[in-house]
Give the backbone structure.
Amino acid sequence: MKTLPSDGVSANIENLDSLNDEALARLAQNGSSDAEHTLVVRFMPLVRIKARPYFLIGADHSDLVQEGSIGLFSAIRDYDCEKHTSFRTYAEVCIGNNIIAAIKRATRKKHFPLNSYISLDKPVFFDNPDDEARCLGDSILLAATIDPEELAIDREAELHILHGLKAELTELELSVLRLYISGKSYAQIAESIGRSTKTVDNALTRIKKKVSKLIRANNPEQS
């Protein structure tokens, strides 16, 4: 394990970069803003990865990244090496919990369908019809509920929404969505499909609207 700087607080950025996560967390808790900054830079890719699977209707991806960042700061503040495992494991939990908490707050404050979210962690768009039944459960999880932990859409409704999503989205929109879910940036998506970033942004906006419409149609009691 790397040793901490002798004063427990000050260290130049080059030295901080060589420290492990746990040492940086201890330094940050002791008042080192440089150590905190180093941890934030190191873990922001993880924050973006944790936020990526969620399409929060009515919110941008950047909103969820911001919520995940708050979770990261909480992890830095509260991490205790004697109580928790690695800092990375603890940070993952805090980041994920804060994103889910943001979704819960949205469900309490807004009316359907703006309080709906879609988890797109393992996307499969039925490219092979023979795989449809096998992949359905892992393909797209659609949730429209007051409590995101209680998935209110039943299996039949989920089937309707999944089939409707494939039917409603254009080839361009499906391509954009696949690339977005895989973690590509707007610029990377634009390069992959040979279009502008504005086209990518417009496609994602249309996707959100279409998904909102499909969820509402399959949950009339929540409209």
User: Anything to note?
Assistant: The two ends are 56 Å apart (CA to CA). Residues 1-11, 110-116, 120-156 have pLDDT under 50 and may be disordered.
